[in-house]
Write a structure and sequence with these properties.
Largest sheet: none
Distance between the termini: 61 Å
Strand content: under 5%
Oligomer: single chain
Structural class: mainly alpha
Radius of gyration: 24 Å
Number of strands: 0
C-alpha cells in the first residue's frame, strides 16, 4: 500500500529539494533536520492515505454537466 500519485509527487519534490539543501549546506545539524523532516512528511502522508476523512475536500465539479433547461416547451414537435 503506497501513496497516491499526487502525494508521491509531493514526497519526491521534498526529497529532491532536501538533497539540494544538503549539497549546499555544510552543517551536520541541517542534514539531520532534513532527514527528520522527510521522515515526518512521509508519516503524515501515509496517515492521510489511510484516513482520507482527515483531509476532506469538497468536489468542485458536478457528476454530470448539461446545458438542457428544465422547461416544458417542446420545440421539436410541429
Amino acid at each position: 500500500m503506497g501513496l497516491p500519485i499526487s502525494l508521491f509527487a509531493l514526497m519526491m519534490t521534498s526529497v529532491i529539494g532536501s538533497l539540494l539543501f544538503i549539497i549546499f549546506s555544510f552543517s551536520f545539524l541541517v542534514i539531520i533536520s532534513v532527514f527528520l523532516f522527510n521522515g515526518g512528511l512521509y508519516v503524515v502522508l501515509t496517515k492521510l492515505t489511510k484516513h482520507p476523512a482527515l483531509l476532506h475536500f469538497k468536489k468542485v465539479f458536478p457528476i454530470t454537466i448539461s446545458n438542457k433547461r428544465e422547461s416544458q416547451l417542446q420545440y421539436e414537435k410541429d
